[in-house]
Amino acid sequence: MSGHNKWSSIKHKKGAADAKRGKIFTKLIREITVAAREGGGDADGNPRLRTAIAAAKAENMPKDNIERAIKKGTGELEGSSYEEAYYEGYGPGGVAILIESLTDNRNRTVSEIRHLLTKYNGSMGEAGCVSWMFEKKGMVSVDKNAAEEDRLMELALEAGADDIQDNEDEWTVISDPSVLEDVRSAVEAAGIPIAQAEITMIPQNTIKLDKEKAEKMLKLMDMLEDQDDVQNVYANFDIDDQIMEALT
What we know:
The chain is α+β, with helices and mostly antiparallel strands.
C-alpha cells in the first residue's frame, strides 16, 4: 500500500473522512475560489474549476456554497485572499513529503507545518528537495463493482489515458493532467459512476516502513491534512497490507 493514491483508502478505513467533513468543505471552497480567480468563473473554459466543482459535488456540497465560492474568486463577492504555497520535507524513515497549501498568511502556515514535521520525526526541507520524486498525473477512481476492467480500460485508453491500475476495491485510471477531463467525460458518458477524479502527484519510488514508522507516518499525514491551510499532502511511503490492517 503506497503513497497518495492509497491515502484516501486509508482514511476511509480509519473513518476519518466523515468526521472531518467541515474541514473538507473549507478546503474545497478555497480551491474553487482560487480556481475561479485564476481562470475565470466559467467551468466549461476552466478545467481546474471544473475539477474542483466535481470534487465538491462528490462531497455533497450544497450548490449555493459552490456558487458563492466562485463569486468570491471572480470578485463578485468579498472574501479572503489566498495564495498558493508549496512545502517540501521528510517524514519518518526518510519518506518524501510534498505539501500543497492555500494560505492568507505564509508565516503562520510554514511555522505550523514545520512544527508538525518535527513532532513526528520529520523535518522541513528546501524548495525542490523532494518535488523531483513526484510526477503530476490525472487520476480517476472507479469502484470495481461499477465496471469491468476490460471495458474501463478500453474507454480510458481511447480518451487518452496512460494506464489502469488495480487498487484493492477500485480501478485507478492514470493519465496526463491535460486529458483528465476527457477521461472523466468518457467514463461518465458510458454510465460508469466515478468515485473520485483529481490531479495528483504520484511518487516515482517508495520507501517501505515498519510498523512503528508507519504508525507515525499515518499520524503525521492526518495532522498535516487537518491543518487549516493545507490542501493536499503527497508522500512516497509504502506499508505492507498486514501492517496496515493492524494499524486500522
